[in-house]
């Protein structure tokens, strides 16, 4: 009897082990790996020749299995995420993909995302759209993320079009958030998008959209300041605001007070200011005092360095408040600087004139010769006229 049971158990183990390696349908003409839970496609080819193109992505939804939990497509040339990119399940729940929790669409040259692009994937928890070329739609009701109400992590690092107004990106992205259902959102990554301001409107949008915000990543933008709406002080789960590698030269008193409030709400709250170029003068006194006294966790605070003024190269942590002074420039220095600038401009203009004369010397010579002939011809005509008049009998 025991021997029979052992045989039955062995057969079950073999069946289960074989079941775990069952191959599923997978696109054959592209570099994809597929199993019961994962579809992973990557291309290293140039964008104009890659097979991970728009046609491929439009067909990919047919390969998503009921057991698929992870979908990754990277290195492709998928310029648009169309409506119902993952299937059309309206009125037919069997075409939905409730098991899918992770979608990575990194580095695919995505330029446009249509409303309802993420329908039929209601349980996606993590969405990565980094390294794309997205121009955020100006459509007022583009509910782009409305189909993924369970979304907890949204990665938009370096996802927006270069050489485009960062302020416009942020304003339109706020409109997208307002028209989506993202109450579960915890982590949002907006680094490397050339944002040069984070406004009170943007922060109030996040407050309205989610009460569960945990990470706000704004690293490697061009931020000179951030302004937080008072509602931000009500967030109780926030753990990190990443402001690393921006363009801060100082931080307002209202901002540091907000950081103190967030620390009271959550003692593990951390702010990252590393990589900013601080202008260590009288305008930074309050901020330096705050850095030295606050309980907020500041990453690398003892290595924050001055990049301008008489304290250049010094650590903020080591500078006493008495040395944070604004040096007024003397009028004579200002005048001398003006003289130097004007002199340089005159030298440049003279050099340009000389270069033009050298390059156009033949044309100038011809023009001068023509002018000289014309001038002397007139002079001769005038002389002859004078002589003739003098000989006329009255």
TrEMBL record:
Domain LRRCT: 276-327
The keyword Acetylation belongs to this UniProt entry's keyword annotation: no
Pfam annotation, one family: LRR_8
Signal peptide coordinates: 1-21
Any coiled-coil regions, as ranges: none
GO cellular component: a single term: membrane
Keywords, sorted A to Z: Leucine-rich repeat, Membrane, Repeat, Signal, Transmembrane, Transmembrane helix
Membrane-spanning residues: 337-359
InterPro entries found in the cross-reference section: Cys-rich_flank_reg_C (IPR000483), Leu-rich_rpt (IPR001611), LRR_dom_sf (IPR032675), Wnt_signaling_inhibitor (IPR052286)
Superkingdom: Eukaryota
UniProt name for this protein: Trophoblast glycoprotein
Species for this entry: Mizuhopecten yessoensis
């Amino acid at each position: 009897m025991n021997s029979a049971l052992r045989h039955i158990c062995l057969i079950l183990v073999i069946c289960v082990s074989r079941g775990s390696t069952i191959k599923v349908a997978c696109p054959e003409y592209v570099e994809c790996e597929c199993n019961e839970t994962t579809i992973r496609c990557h291309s290293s080819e140039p964008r104009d020749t890659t097979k991970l193109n728009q046609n491929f992505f439009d067909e990919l939804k047919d390969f998503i299995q009921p057991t698929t939990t992870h979908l990754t497509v990277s290195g492709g040339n998928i310029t648009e995420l169309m409506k119902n990119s993952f299937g059309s399940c309206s009125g037919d729940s069997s075409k939905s993909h409730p098991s899918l929790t992770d979608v990575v669409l990194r580095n695919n040259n995505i330029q446009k995302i249509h409303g309802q692009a993420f329908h039929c994937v209601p349980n996606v928890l993590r969405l990565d759209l980094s390294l794309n070329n997205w121009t955020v739609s100006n459509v007022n009701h583009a509910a782009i993320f409305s189909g993924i109400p369970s979304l907890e992590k949204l990665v938009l690092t370096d996802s927006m079009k270069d050489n485009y107004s960062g302020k416009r990106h942020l304003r339109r992205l706020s409109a997208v958030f307002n028209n989506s259902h993202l109450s579960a959102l915890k982590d949002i990554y907006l680094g490397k998008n050339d944002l040069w301001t984070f406004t009170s409107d943007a922060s109030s949008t996040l407050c309205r959209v989610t009460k569960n915000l945990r990470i706000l990543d704004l690293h490697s933008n061009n931020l000179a300041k951030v302004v937080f709406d008072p509602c931000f002080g009500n967030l109780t789960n926030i753990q990190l605001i990443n402001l690393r590698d921006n363009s801060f030269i100082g931080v307002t008193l209202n901002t540091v007070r907000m950081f103190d409030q967030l620390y009271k709400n959550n003692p593990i709250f951390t702010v990252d200011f590393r990589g900013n170029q601080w202008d260590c003068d009288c305008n930074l006194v309050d901020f330096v005092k705050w850095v030295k006294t606050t309980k907020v966790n500041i990453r690398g605070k003892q290595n924050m360095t001055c990049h301008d003024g008489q304290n250049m190269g010094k650590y903020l942590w080591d500078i006493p408040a008495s040395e944070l002074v604004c040096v007024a420039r003397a009028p004579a220095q200002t005048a001398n600087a003006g003289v130097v600038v004007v002199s340089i401009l005159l030298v440049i203009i003279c050099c340009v004139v000389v270069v033009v004369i050298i390059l156009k010397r033949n044309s100038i010579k011809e023009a001068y010769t023509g002018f000289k002939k014309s001038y002397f011809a007139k002079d001769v005509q005038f002389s002859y006229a004078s002589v003739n008049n003098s000989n006329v009998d009255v």
